[in-house]
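User: quick one
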Amino acid sequence: MTLNSKRVSLLGSLVLLPFLLVSAFAAPSAVGQLALQPAAAAALDSFAAPEPVLIPLLPEAKAVYPGTSILPVIEDRGRVDAILKLVALISRGGPYPFSQDATTFKNKEGLLPAMQLGFYKEYTLIVPRNSSRELVIGGVLYHLPPSYGVRGCERLVVGGNEIVYYSPTHYKDFIRLTVLP
Amino acid sequence: MDVLELVAGEAPVADARGLSFSPAAAAAALRGAGWLALRVDCAAVGGKEALFAAFASALGREYFASNWDAFDDALTSLPYDETSASGYAFLMENYASLPAETAGMFECSVKDAAASVLSNHGRPLKALLF
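Assistant: Done. Structure below.
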């Protein structure tokens, strides 16, 4: 048993030896090539798949940024414009027309991911008069409740000062929006 | 203790059971004092959807979505600035019929809304339990 192990070990060394030798001689020349050819070095770098560098983000670094379009596609130009306008207002920090704006959304029904109280803030989305009560977002049809009161039934909810959700149905549905620059 | 003394207290949710006045008498006394008083009968309310429906009909609102977030929104969105009421009272009749979980959520909503209405509109909002 012991003898066999030694034999295997010895065999392994012998088998590996040529490769080790080749490596030993090849390595300096490879380094030389890299030093001489920056383009090749860059190409190799792209294969290196470095560990992602995690830069801690301060809370102040998170922000809502204004944009010019939204994903998923909302098939209503008036609503898209209203959302972009409100997003721009949020990015400036107001001033907001209603006392309920920028207040904490409590997520009582738990439709958004559970976070600490105060993580979500809500904003009234005012849409053009006589906007359709049927709305297609990302290919999905939503039936909007009849609008009531001056604030209507549509809201934006912002999580952690960066994640924007749209609720067209008075907190019944939430659609996460990506605002494109 | 009469109903005006009861609503003068700090608590947004006040238990009127065992006191000498009826919901009808309380509503009349509150209205006489300039309050908006709405009676909400919980006798047939077996859960939150029925509670929301009872409120929607008491408020005369066209609609609010059937969820607690929408209910909170509705309570803080009453036309406070368009009315000159000195306070807002929901008289919750047959309150014991409400399932405990629904009652707990309801009282939490009233407390939150009362704080918001007091700070934004300077007027009290109360739920009186009968």
